[in-house]
What does this fold into?
Amino acid sequence: MDIIEFKKRFEIQLENAFDYEKALERQNLNHEDVIKLRQRIADKSKVPKFIHDKHLILFLNGCKGDIDEASKHIENYFEIKITSPELFWDRNPESTALQFSFKVQQMAPLPITPNNCYAFVHRVADLNPQNYHYDDVFKMFMMMAEHAIFTNGPREGSIFISDWTGVKFGHLFRASISSIRKSFDFILNASPVKMKAIHILNSSYLVQILHSICKPFMSQEFIDIVHVHPSNLNFEEFFEKHIPRHCMPADYGGELPHIEVLHSKNIENLIKHKEYFHLEEHHFKQRFDEFINHK
It folds into this structure.
């Protein structure tokens, strides 16, 4: 696929994404700063020459309008994605590997919250640790998050809810230190969306072990947004303080369908979106060759 065909097909995908003008207005941004950001990254070897304004506005928004910071995030974004195929390549939602992981994990986007944040929920469906693969789980989460961003445009940040019911000691050792380091590096230094809060439901002593494993890769700011909740959590208080009832699945007393239903819908949406993942991967593989040759 040459660059002309790629650009044409990618622009078709982006036409179906969020409304650019409405996003500028909602997030109090201006197109002039998007132009300045494009100029700032023009000579960056790690950044593709073709990058759409709808991508740029996401980074500008995530960095609170700071053009220098947005430029750094864009560089990190492409470098990490290009050099971490285990986390960001092979993202065909109909592949055997991902179809298997869809049965092991259940994930779904939730409605945009009243404070204008994306929200996502996750839980383990297959409790056998041997079937858990961290790389694929992170890959699934990023695909889900990117689809939500693609659909809803820039927002104030994201909220991640992880239900630890059934998580066993063996699950903690199904991830390499390299993958953990790369995933935290991406979330903290490259993602166009700032993580606002992480809620761990039905926690156990395993959370402390995980904290010890991940602490070297986490900033204090990140640690401060992690909220650990016991199995006897008062969800009425949770709805009031964190996420309202109408944004939560029925599994937790919310007004949405059960996670299993939301998860199935999420898979359907990812499959409909597979052309985007295919084009992005094609682009990254080309960039990988250029990146290696440049080094």
About this structure: The chain is about 55% helix and 10% strand.
